[in-house]
Amino acid sequence: MPFIFIFLISLLVVLFAIPSIITVSFRKRLFDDPSESRKVHKRIVPNFGGIAIFTGFLFSCSLFIPAHLLPEANILMAGGLILFMIGLKDDLIGVNPGMKFAAQFLSALIIAMVANIRISDLHGILGIYDMPYYASISLTAIFIVGVVNAFNLIDGIDGLAGSLGIIFSLFYAVLFYNAGELGWSYLSIALTGALIGFLFFNFTPAKIFMGDSGSLLLGFVAAVLSIKFIEVSSLHDVKVSAIHIPNGIALIFSVLIIPIFDTLRVFTLRIIRKTSPFKADSNHLHHRLLFLGMSHIQATLVLSVVNVMFIIMALSLQDMDGTQLISLMALTVLTMNGLLSLHIDRYKKSLLSRETIPTLPVLNKEHIEPAFNKERFAQEVLNKITEN
């Protein structure tokens, strides 16, 4: 019964809050800037959905989760509040990247050192088991900052970040419930309700975006839940149906594989091209799917289904060694990315082959049509696809 109340309260708070946020945003002319070249949206849309998500999530957790079930709740909310506030400031007036990273590391250190939620044991991954305290703190901080930025970067099209958030939060709700960790399960289902409420307004055509205040918070909660599950899986006999889960780290890799792979991929390509890895571009996975002519909903559905497939893969292969399972999933996602690249190359060639040379009658030199420019034609077609 508490699950239903937590879910519904979180959902209803978001559903009631967002229309007011949209109204105020239009009255005060607070919008996401569609003029940036990397933006796939060409309409004026408020980007303060994170306010509703955070409010619904916080209200539901505060109302229904007893302190004895989640003693780390206050510390968790303090870390999340830092990222929510820095994200909100970025949505309003912009924030220096250095300040943004400082806030992320501060939140990560609060979780690792104050809440003592940290990666202390890799359970044999790469032959590593127990870790020294400061190595554990460092790895935890890097992981949290990495996942926070991964969700911030994946939030590029309607519904994508919210859908991936629903997948991980609902899955963790089940895992923590099966492990007897009701407090963490309640927290996960509260986030699920908030995100479902948000998606009512975020699917194409989006009426609101979650903004940095939402995506930073979403990545933060995803990272903390993942670290906590690593700890829980080593202490409890966690099962999904009849499947025993000895490889907790491999399982969270499958849960976060889309945002993590996308971030590693674009950072690597930017470094190879000798540009800043933090310079925004239009080369994310969702941009590539849009280039192929998919709609926002189609691209979101494809990436969400792939995410679920990797989770099923990790659950089905829990008997494998953890390092081998992670390696297999990494090889699989690299292969899928390679096939996508081949398909995009073929698509580009097909666009270049669709040229039609005009055959107007030639009267004299003044009436001769200019030579057909194949490259210009292809670029115009590609620009049109990107705009749509």
From TrEMBL:
<keyword id="KW-1133">Transmembrane helix</keyword>
<feature type="binding site">
    <location>
        <position position="152"/>
    </location>
    <ligand>
        <name>Mg(2+)</name>
    </ligand>
</feature>
<keyword id="KW-0472">Membrane</keyword>
<dbReference type="GO" id="GO:0046872">
    <property type="term" value="F:metal ion binding"/>
</dbReference>
<feature type="transmembrane region" description="Helical">
    <location>
        <begin position="73"/>
        <end position="89"/>
    </location>
</feature>
<keyword id="KW-0812">Transmembrane</keyword>
<feature type="transmembrane region" description="Helical">
    <location>
        <begin position="216"/>
        <end position="236"/>
    </location>
</feature>
<dbReference type="GO" id="GO:0044038">
    <property type="term" value="P:cell wall macromolecule biosynthetic process"/>
</dbReference>
<dbReference type="GO" id="GO:0016780">
    <property type="term" value="F:phosphotransferase activity, for other substituted phosphate groups"/>
</dbReference>
<feature type="transmembrane region" description="Helical">
    <location>
        <begin position="325"/>
        <end position="344"/>
    </location>
</feature>
<feature type="binding site">
    <location>
        <position position="212"/>
    </location>
    <ligand>
        <name>Mg(2+)</name>
    </ligand>
</feature>
<dbReference type="InterPro" id="IPR000715">
    <property type="entry name" value="Glycosyl_transferase_4"/>
</dbReference>
<feature type="transmembrane region" description="Helical">
    <location>
        <begin position="131"/>
        <end position="152"/>
    </location>
</feature>
<keyword id="KW-1003">Cell membrane</keyword>
<keyword id="KW-0479">Metal-binding</keyword>
<dbReference type="InterPro" id="IPR018480">
    <property type="entry name" value="PNAcMuramoyl-5peptid_Trfase_CS"/>
</dbReference>
<feature type="transmembrane region" description="Helical">
    <location>
        <begin position="101"/>
        <end position="119"/>
    </location>
</feature>
<feature type="transmembrane region" description="Helical">
    <location>
        <begin position="289"/>
        <end position="313"/>
    </location>
</feature>
<keyword id="KW-0460">Magnesium</keyword>
<feature type="transmembrane region" description="Helical">
    <location>
        <begin position="248"/>
        <end position="268"/>
    </location>
</feature>
<dbReference type="Pfam" id="PF00953">
    <property type="entry name" value="Glycos_transf_4"/>
</dbReference>
<feature type="transmembrane region" description="Helical">
    <location>
        <begin position="183"/>
        <end position="204"/>
    </location>
</feature>
<keyword id="KW-0808">Transferase</keyword>
<feature type="transmembrane region" description="Helical">
    <location>
        <begin position="159"/>
        <end position="177"/>
    </location>
</feature>
<feature type="transmembrane region" description="Helical">
    <location>
        <begin position="6"/>
        <end position="26"/>
    </location>
</feature>
<dbReference type="GO" id="GO:0009103">
    <property type="term" value="P:lipopolysaccharide biosynthetic process"/>
</dbReference>
<protein>
    <submittedName>
        <fullName>UDP-N-acetylmuramyl pentapeptide phosphotransferase/UDP-N-acetylglucosamine-1-phosphate transferase</fullName>
    </submittedName>
</protein>
<dbReference type="GO" id="GO:0005886">
    <property type="term" value="C:plasma membrane"/>
</dbReference>
<dbReference type="GO" id="GO:0071555">
    <property type="term" value="P:cell wall organization"/>
</dbReference>
<feature type="transmembrane region" description="Helical">
    <location>
        <begin position="47"/>
        <end position="67"/>
    </location>
</feature>
